[in-house]
Amino acid sequence: MHLFGVLFQLAWRNLWRNHRRTIIMLGAIGVGVWAMIFMTALTRGMVDQMVTDSIGILPGHVQIHNPDYLDDPSISNRISYTDTELRQKFESAGFESWASRVRVPAIVTSERDSRGVTLLGVDPVAEKDISFFDYAEVEGRFLSDSGDKGIVIGGKLADKLETGLGKRIVIMSQDPDNDIADRGFRIVGLYSANTSAVEEAYAYIGKSTAQAMLGIGDTSTEVVFLGTEYRNVEPVYEAVAERVDERVSVQRWYEIDTYLGTMLGVMDGFVLVWVIVIFLALSFGLVNTLVMAVFERVREIGLMLALGMKPGSILGQIIIESMLLLTLGLATGNLLAWATIMPLRDGIDISIVGEGMEMWGASSMLYPKLYLGDMVLASVVVLLLGFLASLSPAWRASRYEPVEAITKA
Amino acid sequence: MTAVRCVDLCKTYCQGDQDIKALDHVSIEIAESGFVCLSAPSGGGKTTLLNAIGGLDIPDSGEVYVAGQRIDNLSKGALAELRLRQIGFVFQAYNLIPVLTARENVEFVMQVQGVAAADRHEKSTAILKEVGLEGLEDRRPAEMSGGQQQRVAVARAIASKPSLVLADEPTANLDSKTSDELMELFTHLNEHHKTTFVIATHDRRVMKYARRLIRMLDGRIVDDIDQRAA
Amino acid sequence: MSIVLRLAWRNLWRQPRRTWLTTGAMVFSNLLLVFMMSLQFGMYGLMIDNTLQVFTGHLQVQAPGYKDDQKMRQTVADVLPLADAIRAELGSDRVAARGWAFALASSEERSFGIGIYGVETVFEPQVSNIPGLVSDGRYLASNDAAEIVIGKVLARNLRVAVGDELTLLGSGVDGSFAAAVVNVVGIFDSGVKDIDRNIAEMPIATFQETFFLDGAGHQIAIVADNLDAVPEIQSRVRSVLPSDGDLLVLDWNELQPGLKQAIQADMGSNFFMYFVLVVLVAFSVLNTQLMSVLERTREFGIVMALGLKPGRLGRLVILETAMMGLMGTGLGIVAGGLLTLWFTGNGLSLPGMDEMAAQFNLPARMYPEVSALSLLAGPLVVFLFTMLAAVYPALRLRWQNPVEAMRAA
User: Fold this and answer.
1) Pick from A362-376, B212-226, C28-42, C207-221: least confident
2) Residues β-bridged to residue B36
């Protein structure tokens, strides 16, 4: 330990010996680390938003379906449990945020036009914890209960159908016997979502109303469960999987929305690649600085060796110097990132490319998300790779022959 | 008791396409608390001999003993340990670590040895006072004169109580007055601490301080004079 | 070689490791820039082509408002003669009229709401890649046949095969009940789920008859030879339109505003990354050149004392930097070009790209495209910043006083 003290002192003072070089390097590392974290925060923010939007519209970190439903989303492929059985299974087991739904493809027809939609029969009471209607704006009202006779559709869909609040529309779908099941509804609410594609896609009616219209008793097509965080759905998944048999399939959200699931994985990979690329760009400067530092100090390294310091200590000294430089740079970069991201917490308006972002599946407000984990990841990667990059110059320094080094002009 | 014994040392360097015999069958013995000058023109082999004794350089053949221990066959690590514990060095120039103050330079060896801070502080204070640098403890090398820097180097060399101090042209960069002061310091320390001093030099005024003068030429000892008699 | 050039060159190689490391930083960045830009531009080209060739084309003639609302009654009257006129004007076959309607398609077992295009069977293959993707059966035979081709997923969901009948139910242009029975003659597989699940095509005359369109359609799609030709074709098409009507000629950017914006959003984030890389190289160069000037202070002092003007020494430093910059640029372009060429031959595939690619109508394997722009743009910017980074070290020389400089250690 005493030795570390000496080495640390030497490294620290040597670092500030050529303060211009150190400050330039700190600037470079600072900018590099800032870029790593800033870019990562933007990426995370975008993906988080995409996922929250997507899960928010049709919440459910973990979902249960009939095994055939995902490939063939027909009313014939319903869940084999009735609502009563589901309640017995999950209500008593302490699941708080869960709901069953009826989801079928349907056609909505106004006086003027018709369109295909995904019809969702929901129980507003059960959905109250998990519904995106907590934050989506609804003009008029949302459904009041499972037996509500009204329908809520997106504003954009209403435009296309040339209909509006209080007007009647007809919903047509198919019952299990392949007969047309249809029914007229009064529009009681118009919702607005982040993207117009969503507003055109989903129409909401009461679950009991849907069950009655389709003649499916008290069965449903999906059961959804909400955990605490979309990145960590395993606990919920396991708890649900434990309570059902093979007549249904249990899936995590990213197994259902594979685009988003992949996006999440790709973004994680991107973050790591980005951090490494920046580091590599920095590493040339870092190694250069160390090589210069060693080169300038050949004589005193020789002296220390002559005085009986072990080569390992010389190696350690250079590495400590490099780690100090990196740590200071990391602190600068992290602070800089924090200072630039904080003012942007309330979102960056990128609606100028809004329809483009919609194509990526993202919304036109970008909320940078600064995760401690990302800061730690960047720091650890930088220190680890920095350590590896310092090995070569440090090794060279420790291999000097004391006599030759001292007499080096 | 002999502090240093060399038996039949040989060392050849290649310089360009010429082989230079830096040590040509050299054998000497240096008694404990001796004060010896090695003198030779440059290229005469004195630095090579000094380095061989200090374990900085391994001779091609022959044996080197320091305080009775054979060192020419030791590993690099063991040699480093030997230099750290038993030998003090004073070089011609670049003696000090530029980023450390006078006191820290003196304490450096002790610190690497693992001496406790309080102990170090006490010793360095005493020694810096002894070499006449009281009040300059916190200066860095760049803020001191050449003579002062060499004094710090001497203080460092003896601080950890080595049995042997090797000095290679310690006065080469000093004016004559400062040289004399440094040599008087060496003499004082030799008498006071009973430390063995081996000083390589080609400065006549330095030689006159030595009790024993060994002259070398082309890697051979040509003269070995006991100066106390004179 | 002049003496100044030779001097600069030799100075550069006084510290070969440092020069190589700094050059290495440039080469690394240039390599990345060249490769990334080639990949990016290749990808954008594909994104545009692949998206537009499905249905959109480069230009469309439409009624005002149709783009946003897609209402049945927003028609182009006498669409077939108009398409003929446009073909004659342009001397091109890559012009096809279409109608679009929403209908409920029912097989014996199932019903789904789908979008149906009424197409000119001869010309549709010239503007869209869907006819070429019929993997089972054949494409539509003639404009008045009672036939339909549907997507692969839709066929599976409806449980129909080639030769089966489908019943179509929808509303005509006047809101009246529209129905037809058609034969499935072909099944296409585009690889894009949304298209394969929701889209069908039938002959335009049959289509007009079914939906009471009376010779009208909804769009005329036009494909140009390349994007640059679009504005000219747009004005020529305008000249053919009936002067009394209010028909619009929309270009691809108006039809798919998301496409250009998705590219812009992607470019924005990429340019941020490129910029960071360039700045890091600049830091590296600044560090190296400043060190090289500082360690030669004494030498420069002597030369200045001999009467050389500081300005000339400054130019020497700039010249050294330029030489290093040219090496970095040259090697970077070569290395980047070779890497890109290798991938141009072999293609590049990353994990997760299938899903991402499908979202943007891209193939799962990407082939970067080497162009003068992608090859030179990045390296030139790097070179520019390299030279900028040398300004401070060079200026420092001007401020130097020869006596002080000589005294410096």
Assistant:
1) A362-376
2) B198, B212
How many residues are listed for chain A in this entry?
409
Position C402 scores a pLDDT of 61
Of C201, C223, C245, the position where a domain reaches its end is C223
Domain boundary among C165, C197, C223: C223
Residue numbers of the domain that contains C86: 59-223
Listed residue (A340, A337, A334) closest to A380, CA to CA = A334
DSSP character for B142?
G
pLDDT score at A228:
75
**What average pLDDT does the segment A88-109 reach?**
83
pLDDT at residue C409, rounded to an integer: 46
**B contact test, residue of A406, A407, A408 with most B CBs within 10 A:** A406
Q: Classify A49 as helix, strand or coil.
A: helix
Is the CB of B53 inside 8 Å of chain A's CB atoms? no
C172 and C291 share one domain = no
Shared-domain flag, residues C26 and C67: no
Compute the nearest-CA separation of B94 from chain A (Å): 7
Query: pTM value?
Result: 0.82
What is the CATH code of the structural domain delimited by B2-226?
3.40.50.300
Task: Please identify among residues 89-108 of chain A the ones whose CB lies closer than 8 Å to any CB of chain B.
Answer: none
Q: Do residues C18 and C37 share a domain?
A: yes
DSSP symbol at A148? -
What's the alpha-carbon Rg for chain B, to the nearest Å? 17
Q: What is the pLDDT of residue C184?
A: 95
Q: Which of B85, B30, B35, B2 is nearest to B192 (CA)?
A: B35
Residues C74 and C213 in one domain: yes
What is residue C352's predicted lDDT score, i.e. its pLDDT? Answer: 65
In a domain, C316, yes or no: yes
Q: Which two tokens stand for residue C307?
A: 């009467």
Subunits with 3+ C-beta pairs closer than 8 A to C:
A
Which residue does chain A place closest to B82, by CA atoms? Answer: A308
Look at residue C240 and tell me if it is in a domain.
no
User: Within 10 A of C4 (CB to CB), how many other CB atoms are there?
Assistant: 12
Contacts of residues C359-365 at CB distance under 8 Å and 24 or more positions apart, as own/partner, are C359/A259, C359/A359, C359/A360, C359/A361, C360/A359, C360/C47, C360/C50, C360/C51, C360/C262, C361/C47, C361/C50, C361/C51, C361/C54, C361/C192, C362/C43, C362/C46, C362/C47, C362/C50, C363/C46, C363/C50
Domain extents for chain B? 2-226
**E strands, A126-225, in order:** 137-140, 150-154, 168-174, 180-192, 202-206, 222-225
In a shared domain, residues C211 and C69: yes
Q: Is B18 exposed, middle or buried (0-12, 13-18, 19+ CB in 10 A)?
A: exposed
d(CA B44, CA B22): 7
- Asked if B168 and B91 count as a contact pair (C-beta separation under 8 A), the reply is yes
Average confidence score pLDDT of chain B: 88
